[in-house]
C-alpha cells in the first residue's frame, strides 16, 4: 500500500471554527490531492499540488485553502467551518501525470460540523 | 472538458452471476480511464487502468474492462461474483493534457448469496 497517512481520522467540530486536516506521504511523490466524498456526488477535487508551494484549485475549492511547505505534507484548512463541509475527505498522491502513474488514496478523514 | 457517467447507483447480483458495471466518458482528446473500488470505511483502491494499446484490460480480483472508443464506454465486468466483491466502484477519466481525474458518482455493488 502507498504510504499515505491522514490525520485526524475522525473529527467533530462546531460551525465557525477553523479546521486543518493533514496528509502525510512517505513515497516522495510530486503530486498530492484533496477530495471530498459525499453521497450521490462521488469524489470531487478540492485542491491539488504539483510541488512544494505549487497548488491549484479544483472543482469545489470555495471555503478551503491548502499549503504544501514540504514534499511529504499537504494541509487542507477550513478557515471557518460550515455544516455544508461535513464530509469524508480523502488525500491522494501520484508520482506524475503519465498514464502509468495513477493516484493512490489514503483512508480518509470523516469530518462532522455541527 | 472531461466527464464520466456511471449508469445505476446500485447494482444487485447473486453470487456466481456475471457482474457488469457501466461507465461512459466524455473527452475531446484521447482519455486515460480507471476503475477504483472502495470497501467500507476505506480509501479507493485501483482495480485497473486503460492507457493505450490493448483495449481489453485485466485488473485485480478477476475484473476486466474493455475500452470502446466508438461507444465512449469503459464497462467493468467479472464473470462470477463473489460475496467479497460487494463494494462501491468508481470510474474515472483523465484526458491527455489534463492534470486531474474526474470521477463518476459511483455504483454500489450488492452481492446476495
Description:
The complex is a heterodimer of chains A (114) and B (113). In chain A, 0% of the residues lie in helices and 57% in strands. Chain A is mostly beta strands and 114 residues long. In chain A, strands 2, 4, 5, 6, 9, 10 and 11 form a seven-stranded mixed sheet that branches. A four-stranded antiparallel sheet of chain A has the order 1-3-8-7, with no helix packed on it. The radius of gyration of chain A is 13 Å and the shape is globular. In chain B, 0% of the residues lie in helices and 58% in strands. In chain B, the strands form two sheets. In chain B, strands 2, 4, 5, 9, 10 and 11 form a six-stranded mixed sheet that branches. In chain B, strands 1-3-8-7-6 form a five-stranded antiparallel sheet, with no helix packed on it. In chain B, a hairpin with a 4-residue loop joins strand 7 (64-68) and strand 8. In chain B, 37% of the residues are buried. Chains A and B meet through strand 5 and strand 10 of A and strand 4 and strand 5 of B.
Amino acid at each position: 500500500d502507498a504510504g499515505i497517512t491522514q490525520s485526524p481520522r475522525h473529527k467533530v467540530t462546531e460551525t465557525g471554527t477553523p479546521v486543518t486536516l493533514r496528509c502525510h506521504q512517505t513515497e516522495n511523490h510530486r503530486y498530492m490531492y484533496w477530495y471530498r466524498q459525499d453521497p450521490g456526488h462521488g469524489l470531487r477535487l478540492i485542491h491539488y499540488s504539483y510541488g512544494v508551494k505549487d497548488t491549484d484549485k479544483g472543482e469545489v475549492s470555495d471555503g478551503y485553502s491548502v499549503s504544501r511547505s514540504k514534499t511529504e505534507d499537504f494541509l487542507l484548512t477550513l478557515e471557518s467551518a460550515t455544516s455544508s463541509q461535513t464530509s469524508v475527505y480523502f488525500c491522494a498522491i501520484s508520482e506524475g501525470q503519465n498514464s502509468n502513474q495513477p493516484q493512490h488514496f489514503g483512508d480518509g478523514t470523516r469530518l462532522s460540523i455541527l | 472538458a472531461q466527464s464520466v457517467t456511471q449508469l445505476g447507483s446500485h447494482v444487485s447480483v447473486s453470487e456466481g452471476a456475471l457482474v457488469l458495471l457501466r461507465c461512459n466518458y466524455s473527452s475531446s482528446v484521447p482519455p486515460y480511464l480507471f476503475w477504483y473500488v472502495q470497501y467500507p470505511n476505506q480509501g479507493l483502491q485501483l482495480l485497473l487502468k486503460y492507457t493505450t494499446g490493448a483495449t481489453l484490460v485485466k485488473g485485480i480480483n478477476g475484473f476486466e474492462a474493455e475500452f470502446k472508443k466508438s461507444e465512449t464506454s469503459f464497462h467493468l465486468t467479472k464473470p462470477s461474483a463473489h460475496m467479497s466483491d460487494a463494494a462501491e466502484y468508481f470510474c474515472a477519466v483523465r484526458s491527455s493534457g489534463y492534470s486531474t481525474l474526474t470521477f463518476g458518482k459511483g455504483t454500489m455493488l450488492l452481492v446476495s448469496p
